[in-house]
């Protein structure tokens, strides 16, 4: 949908009107036949049709283009009233600057910022409303530190609130202690398994070293016996030599 033509001051060129809604173009697109449309209007039209609503020429989404620059400039220069005119805003501005003004307009209807409040109020009156809003929050005057809504003042009990908070903290602490306990047990169990595995590996290495030592001692004894045998043979040979 376009901008209501009744909001505009002065004459509006026919070429700046949407060919579908007949209001002033909003976010315009143009067909090859040079007819212009609001983006929302032409997209809705092409869901059920495949031609221009003015001259019935065939068009599709891919053929739509932005408005010619000179037409866009003419459109942006149009003067119109703020949408909050009915609430008292007397601003008249160009279409190009309309969005910026309406985002900041003091007469805009905006929601109350307090959670739970459904009141819509003019921006200029928001501070006054917040001061008396039944959903406004404040810190408990009795010093418990809780933030309370005005609507809950009669139900707020500092002792009960603090007791509840204490129970929550105790439960949270117990949970954390249990988590820390489980984590430590898991780490100790992992370390225990690692130590057992390491001990088994070391024991196997010790047994292998013992086996190697035993074979080495056996080889040494064999060498010593061979050396004695060789010495005896040398002594016998020496005696035989002397006899000769």
UniProtKB/TrEMBL annotation:
Coiled coil (UniProt feature): 192-243
BP terms from Gene Ontology: regulation of canonical NF-kappaB signal transduction
Pfam families on file: zf-C3HC4_2, zf-TRAF
InterPro entries membership: Znf_RING, Znf_RING/FYVE/PHD, Znf_RING_CS, Znf_TRAF
Residues of the RING-type domain: 18-56
Keyword terms, alphabetized: Coiled coil, Ligase, Metal-binding, Zinc, Zinc-finger
PROSITE patterns named among the record's database cross-references: ZF_RING_1, ZF_RING_2, ZF_TRAF
Ranges annotated as TRAF-type zinc finger: 101-144
GO molecular function terms attached to this record: ligase activity; zinc ion binding
Cytoplasm as UniProt keyword: no
All residue ranges annotated as the TRAF-type domain in the record: 101-144
Membrane-spanning segments: none
Protein name: RNF41 ligase
Gene source species: Galbula dea
């Amino acid at each position: 949908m376009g901008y209501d033509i009744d909001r505009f001051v002065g004459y509006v060129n026919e070429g700046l009107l949407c060919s579908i809604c007949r209001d002033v173009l909003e976010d315009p697109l143009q067909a090859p036949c040079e007819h212009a449309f609001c983006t929302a209007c032409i997209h809705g039209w092409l869901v059920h049709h495949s031609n221009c609503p003015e001259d019935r020429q065939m068009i599709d989404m891919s053929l739509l283009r932005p408005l010619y620059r000179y037409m866009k400039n003419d459109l942006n220069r149009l003067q119109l009233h703020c949408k909050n005119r009915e609430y008292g805003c007397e601003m008249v501005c160009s279409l190009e600057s309309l969005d910026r003004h309406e985002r900041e307009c003091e007469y805009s209807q905006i929601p109350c910022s307090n959670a739970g409040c459904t009141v819509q109020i003019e921006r200029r009156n928001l501070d006054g409303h917040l001061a008396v809003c039944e959903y406004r929050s404040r810190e408990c005057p009795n010093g418990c530190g809780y933030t309370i809504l005005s609507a809950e003042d009669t139900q707020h009990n500092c002792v009960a609130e603090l007791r509840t908070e204490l129970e929550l903290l105790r439960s949270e602490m117990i949970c954390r202690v249990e988590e820390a306990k489980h984590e430590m047990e898991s780490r100790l169990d992992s370390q225990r398994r690692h130590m057992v595995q390491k001990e088994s590996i070391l024991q196997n290495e010790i047994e292998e070293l013992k086996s190697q030592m035993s074979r080495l001692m056996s080889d040494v004894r064999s060498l010593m016996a061979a050396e004695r045998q060789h010495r005896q043979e040398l002594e016998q040979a020496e005696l035989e030599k002397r006899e000769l």
